[in-house]
Write a structure and sequence with these properties.
It comes from Rhodanobacter soli. With about 170 residues, this protein is mainly alpha-helical. It has 6 helices and no strands.
């Protein structure tokens, strides 16, 4: 003979059920923050890349213009025209870093040219261009002037190579 089952004193328990898996959308706030950070980095990288490409394009364009001037001088032999064109090219590039460069003469122009780290002989050759515009063509060393201008331009077209001017030191 069997005995009747004894009722249990506590509540009737059921099997354990796991909660549903978290949905993939919408993402947690940390993922949104990461997405915003990555987007900001992407935009900053894109801005830097475009700026770098523009600077490289400008550098190539200026150096091509210098080569064109040298070739033109080889064809026509006009020394004063070459000196004038080289001088204008120097002023145009210097004006990008110092707006007063277009009007500077003498020591002020020398200081602007010297803001780019070049040797003294190159600096003297560049300063001589200002005088060569008005001198007879026989006293003009064309090859040395083109070489000096090219050396200066290669450094000047990299903004990091410019030293601060004396007025920038005074403002700081």
């Amino acid at each position: 003979m069997r005995l009747p089952p004894v009722p249990s004193p506590g509540p009737q328990l059921r099997d354990i059920h796991l909660p549903p898996a978290p949905p993939w959308w919408p993402p947690a706030p940390g993922w949104w923050a990461l997405a915003v950070l990555l987007l900001a980095l992407l935009l900053a990288g894109l801005w830097w890349w475009r700026r770098h490409r523009r600077a490289l394009r400008q550098r190539r364009q200026v150096l091509r213009e210098l080569d064109r001037l040298a070739r033109q001088h080889q064809r026509d032999g006009d020394g004063p025209a070459l000196a004038s064109a080289l001088h204008q090219l120097l002023r145009r590039v210097a004006r990008q870093h110092d707006a007063r460069a277009a009007r500077q003469r003498g020591d002020a122009w020398r200081q602007t040219l010297a803001r780019v780290p070049i040797d003294a002989a190159t600096l003297q050759q560049l300063l001589a261009l200002d005088q060569q515009i008005y001198r007879p063509p026989a006293s003009f060393d064309h090859a040395a002037s083109v070489t000096a201008v090219k050396a200066w331009l290669q450094l000047a077209l990299k903004p990091a190579s410019w030293k601060p001017s004396a007025t920038e030191h005074a403002d700081a």
